[in-house]
Structures are given as C-alpha cells and as structure tokens.
Amino acid sequence: MKQENSFLGYVLHRRPYRETSYLVDFFTLEQGCIRAVARGVKNSKSDKKSLLQPFQPLHVSFTGKGELQNLKRVESAGPTLMLVGKPMFCAMYLNELVTRLLPSGMASDSVFHAYQNALQAMYANEDMEWVLRQFEFCLFDELGVLPDFSTDAQSSEPLNENSHYVLIPEVGFTEFHPNMSKLQLFPGRILIALADGELTPQTKKVAKVLVRLLLAPLIGNKPLKSRELFS
Question: What is the structure's pLDDT at 230?
C-alpha cells in the first residue's frame, strides 16, 4: 500500500462496535495511537477482519477527522508473530502500556521501534524481564519521567558507587542522608551499572523496583489488566 496517508502500525486492541463493526486502537509509526472504526467486518470472512489482530505489522489508512476515524484500508506489512504463553502475556502488557500512557496522536519513532524490537525479542524467547525493562525505560524517557542514572539531580555530581540514592519524583536521584524520610534506597553502583546497560540479577531487581515507582503515578488507581494474566 503506497499511499500518502498510509501508515505502518499494529493493532493494540479491538472490541465490538455496534452490530457489524469493531472499534480498533492502532499504534502507528507516523501518527502514534489512532482509534478507528472498522465498519462492517465483524461478521464477515474478509481479509480485513483476519488482519485486525495484535502483533501483525500492517499498512493502514484512515478517513475522517477528529479523534475517532474510519479505517479505510488495511494490508499486511509482514508476518504475524505467533506469540503464546508468557511471551503473549508480556506483549499484551506492552499493548496496554502504550494504550494507557502514550497520548493519542503523539508519534514517537523511538517507542515504535522499541515496541517492534520487543515483539521480535519475545518471539525469540529472549529474557522477558529485561525485554520489558528496555521498553518501559524507552517509554518513560519519551514521556519525560525517566531519571538520569549517572548524575545526582541536586548536586549535578556523578553518582558515587559507594553511596545510596533516593528517587525524588520529577527531579531524579539524589544522595540519601539520614535526616531524609524513609524512602526506597538505590545503591549507586547498581544505578551506574544500569546506566552502562549491564544485565545482572542485581540490575534486573533494581530496575523492576524502579519501574513500579515510575509507573504508579502514571496509571493512578486503575491497575493494568494485563498484569492479572501473570498470576
């Protein structure tokens, strides 16, 4: 599909809409998240219906204005990644993160390519935990909430591997002092290792704690449904 308004994207979620249609959330390279109505395909055996599945790269085009558009065309842009079990649950978690956190219409090359890379890594059954952390960090960075792993936010000095740090929301890491309130402590050496991209049991553990802290204010009181799949 070589058209001016054709976008490369993926289906994040679809649900029934009226009697014969679907309401579909797409994640596209060029326009970010787009919600569109796929009219008349719910009860059909058309290729359009079979293509509207998660983890299938697509070329899509839309008509209409405003937040809710109409799906005009959809074509395959590559093979579907057949994910099952834990990789599928992890990929569904990525879909929910994008849907919940990335503002509608906000295009991001880095997040889109991180999403593609994560799906490929899950299909290859790589270290799922680290794949998730890499995508989450990329998304947080795009949203402006990822702290600097190498510099003290208050002193602007490089982190000391022998010190401990606390995370101050919307500020970053700062060295812990005894007069501070009781907060989650992060060893300087582990934060420096994370900045260097080191994959160890210690960095994975700290990264998981950090993601939970950063994610909490973003999702508020509405928990992520995809997390229930892991239990």
Answer: 62
- The tokens for 185 are 């402590």
- The burial of 107, by beta-carbon neighbours within 10 Å (0-12 exposed, 13-18 middle, 19 or more buried), is given as middle
Tokens of 46: 């058309």
Q: Which of 151, 116, 152 is nearest to 134 (CA)?
A: 116
Question: Which tokens belong to 227?
Answer: 């997390």
pLDDT of residue 2: 43
What is residue 173's predicted lDDT score, i.e. its pLDDT?
94
Model's pTM, two decimal places? 0.90
**181 belongs to a structural domain:** no
Nearest CA to 28 out of 3, 2, 10 is that of 10
**Inside any domain, residue 210:** no
**Residue 163 belongs to a domain:** no
Helix, strand, coil abundance in the chain, percent, nearest 5: 35, 25, 40
**Rounded CA gap, 205 and 139, in Å?**
19
CA distances from 174 to 6, 167, 177, 180, 204 (A): 46, 7, 9, 11, 21
> Does residue 28 form part of some domain?
yes
Q: Which domain holds residue 55?
A: 7-76
CATH of the domain at 53: 2.40.50.140
66 residue type, one letter: G
